[in-house]
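Milestone 3.1: sequence recovery, worked example.
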C-alpha cells in the first residue's frame, strides 16, 4: 500500500504493519483521525465520505446495495496489483446488480517534510483519467484506466513514460488531439484535488483504500467477520458508527473483499 507522504494534516506517526497473507508493507504517515479498528470492545466511529452520485465513475449497477468506493493512485504498484482484484469482484457480483465499483483519485504527488514526492506523475495521470471520461464517457474511462494500470511499471520508484498517455487514449477510442488539449489545459486539476481531499476527510492516508457504502446497515455479525480479518490480515479495517460504511486499507486479497460482501449479503436475508 502506497502511503500519503504529507504529514502536515495531523500529528505525524509511523507504524509498520506487516501483512500475513499479502506480501506488502503499509507505512502509516499518520493514523486516520476519524477511524479506528473495530473489535468487540471498540466503539463504532464516524467515516465521513462524499455521497456517491452520477458524477462518479461507476462500474456496475449504480443502485447496487453495496458500492465499493476505491481511492487509488495510478502510479502506485499496489493499486496496479489490486485493480484486477476489483475487476474480478465486479465480474462475480456485478451481473446480479448487487455490487458496484466507484473509482476516486487519490494521487500521492504531495511533498513530504523532506520535500520528497512519492509519485510525481500521479496528479497528471489522474487528470488523464478525467479527460478520458469527459471525452468518451464511462466506458472510455474504464478502458483507459484498465490499460494504464496494465502497462504502468510494477516497481516502486519507477513511473510510466508520460508519452504513453496519448497512446492509451487511442487504445480507449479517444481522439488524441482532443485528449492532449484536455490534459494540457489542466481542466480537471481542481476535481482531482477535491477527490483527494474527500479521501483525506474519510481517513484515507494511502492507496489503495476501499470504503464499502451500504444501502442498509451492516448486519450485527459483521463485527465478528471484521475482527477475524484484522487478526488474519493485520491491516486496518473499520466500520462506521451508523453501520453504513466499512473501511478497508491495502491491496487486500480477493478473498477478503468477498468475505465482507458475503457477510453483508447473508446478513440481509
Amino acid at each position: 500500500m502506497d502511503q500519503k507522504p504529507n504529514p502536515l494534516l495531523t500529528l505525524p506517526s509511523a507504524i509498520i504493519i506487516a501483512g500475513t497473507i499479502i506480501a506488502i508493507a503499509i507505512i502509516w504517515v499518520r493514523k486516520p483521525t476519524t477511524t479506528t479498528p473495530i473489535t468487540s470492545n471498540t466503539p463504532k466511529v464516524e467515516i465521513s465520505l462524499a455521497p456517491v452520485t452520477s458524477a462518479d465513475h461507476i462500474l456496475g449497477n449504480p443502485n447496487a446495495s453495496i458500492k465499493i468506493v476505491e481511492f487509488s493512485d495510478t502510479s502506485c504498484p499496489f493499486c496496479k496489483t489490486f485493480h484486477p482484484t476489483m475487476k474480478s469482484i465486479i465480474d462475480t457480483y456485478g451481473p446480479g446488480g448487487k455490487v458496484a465499483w466507484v473509482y476516486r483519485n487519490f494521487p500521492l504527488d504531495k511533498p513530504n517534510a523532506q520535500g520528497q514526492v512519492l509519485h510525481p506523475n500521479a496528479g497528471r495521470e489522474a487528470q488523464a483519467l478525467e479527460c478520458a471520461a469527459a471525452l468518451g464517457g464511462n466506458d472510455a474511462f474504464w478502458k483507459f484506466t484498465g490499460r494504464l494500470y496494465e502497462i504502468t511499471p510494477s516497481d516502486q520508484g519507477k513511473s510510466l513514460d508520460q508519452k504513453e498517455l496519448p497512446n492509451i487514449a487511442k487504445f480507449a477510442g479517444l481522439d488524441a488531439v482532443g485528449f492532449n488539449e484536455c490534459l494540457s489545459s489542466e481542466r480537471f486539476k481542481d476535481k482531482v484535488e477535491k477527490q483527494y481531499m474527500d479521501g483525506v476527510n474519510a481517513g484515507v492516508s494511502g492507496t489503495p483504500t476501499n470504503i464499502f457504502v451500504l444501502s442498509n446497515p451492516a448486519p450485527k455479525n459483521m463485527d465478528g467477520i471484521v475482527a477475524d480479518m484484522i487478526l488474519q490480515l493485520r491491516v486496518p479495517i473499520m466500520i462506521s458508527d451508523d453501520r453504513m460504511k466499512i473501511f478497508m486499507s491495502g491491496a487486500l486479497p480477493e478473498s477478503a473483499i468477498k468475505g465482507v460482501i458475503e457477510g453483508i449479503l447473508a446478513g440481509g436475508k
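The first strand starts at residue 2 and ends at 3. Residues 6-36 have pLDDT under 50 and may be disordered.
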